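Shift notes (night). Ran NADH-ubiquinone oxidoreductase chain 1 while the centrifuge was going.
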Amino acid sequence: MISYLSYIFLIMCVLVSVAFFTLLERKILGYIHIRKGPNKVGFIGVFQPFSDAIKLFSKEMNMMFYINMIFYIISSVVLLILMMSLWFLFSWDYNQILIEYGMVFLLCISSLSVYVILFGGWSSNSKYALLGSYRGGAQVISYEVSLSLWLISVIFFCGSYSIMKIEMFQNLWIMLVGFFNLLIVWMVSCFAETNRSPFDLSEGESELVSGFNIEYGSWNFAVLFIAEYGNIILISVITTNLFFGDMGVMMINVLVVMVLFILIRGTLVRYRYDKLMMLAWKVILPYSIVIIFLVCFLKWTFMSMFCVFLSKK
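Came back to this:
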């Protein structure tokens, strides 16, 4: 019972964090544009996210007759459930559930998001939403392959599927030191997986007419919004655990990765779609295969040196 209560408390903290992360993003983007961000609602705009949430959840929901209503409603809710279920990966100080094969669980749950995008676009019965869902589905599938290979590399090097044991392994070897190039490619893939700039092709505001979520409004859009930003926070925590270990204060490292998402959005322009696919299949995928062989060689070398050291001792 204590495990489930602590998990519910964690989810409540994540939802509150999503609210303030949106405020942080709007503030930083405002200063990038040489203007002020939200600063009217409450002290320096601190209540702006709650004002936006009340507005979205109190708006009238348009029920168009041509929408496949069941899948239309379920899609946004399922995306939120998938985001919340991924927080089972982490074990905090209050006897939460510890998943031994956490990385396998991460790959299984994250790969389901493509179905939400496809069903969301299809159930809207709009050609603009359908085109956006096709693009988003192809993008997520393409980068999911490379993401899986990088996780396999980290799992093989650390010798465990548990994200907590991978973090403990970094007491001996911090992954950031030897695999900084892997971190860069990992972040590129995470931008594509979370549909963030410069890879936000499934949610483009101009040329895609807002992508697969064009027909979503009111609380449905708010749920999609919460799920997207919750995934960004989740990816930031996973990146910190996989590459930074115990180096410094964990929450500061997580905040640095979250701010990186915002800075990339305010700096880089959106990729053209053919370049996005070329980057996935012709650059990142071959590089990830080379990384796997390199990790295997390093693992074999370290094990051989360790065995020689033990034999001499």
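The mean pLDDT is 84. Residues 124 and 215 are 6 Å apart (CA to CA).
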